[in-house]
Amino acid sequence: MEYKQLYNGVKIPMLGFGTYRIDPQDVPAAIQGALDDGYRHFDCAHIYGNEKQVGQAFKDGGVKREDLFVTSKVWNADQGYDKTLAAFQQTLTDLQLDYLDLYLIHWPNEDNFDLSLETWKALEHLYDQGKVKAIGVSNFSADQLKQVFAMAKTKPMVNQIERHPYKVQKELGAFDTANGIVNEGYSPIGHGHLVLEDPTIKQIAQAHGKTPAQVVLRWHLDTDFVVFPKSRQVARVKENFDIFDFNLTPAEIEQINGLDQDKHLNYDN
């Protein structure tokens, strides 16, 4: 495993396992399979509707809590100081944990950004209380981050954003890095069928004796992005973890960067 260090010294595994859209009944097998394959970083959220099952899977998984890195997020409906604290406690209860490794604001509140600033104060309180080891945001623009900087006692440590070869996020990624924020990329292979059939990626994969998915995940790591692909397929979960025995050349990284279309495959940030 490779790690990225947050500015407060916490180390985050650069490859994790995403729990988005995993049906609750499929969670036990999915989590156990990921644990067995070596995954220790798990990206969760209350809105995914499966945190109770994920928590039970952790309990049954045979891996010590201190060896796991668990992220969750506060949803828009729970933003605001008091509601965030309550939502965090519910997540801890559902996950059967005493603390989180990382807690994020899932989305900026576009209608009332002051509410997101209140949410940030709640995250700072949780951090100060030792209930979470690191705090950050998701889907925040540079301008929104600047508003957080202006009022924060503790700056965000992570910004989780959509990122894949068709949306490279060069400017926002550079802004985050310049401000000591670690970048995380969700939808890292861009919903698979679109990105993985790209001739450039297929050519690079052939050169390394790897699959297109492995090349795309390696590209994220080689460009300092933490990622957490999700798959229900046992073979694909194992395949995604097999990316630590090669690196892309600078020329190959530039080839993949050149595929950028600034194309959202999810929602607009």
Automatic annotation (TrEMBL):
One of its GO terms (molecular function) is oxidoreductase activity, acting on the CH-OH group of donors, NAD or NADP as acceptor. The active site is at 48 (proton donor). Residues 16-260 form the NADP-dependent oxidoreductase domain. Keywords: NADP, Oxidoreductase. Pfam families: Aldo_ket_red (PF00248). Substrate binds at residue 106. It comes from the Bacteria. The record marks 73 as: Lowers pKa of active site Tyr. Belongs to the aldo/keto reductase family. This is Aldo/keto reductase. It comes from Lactiplantibacillus garii.
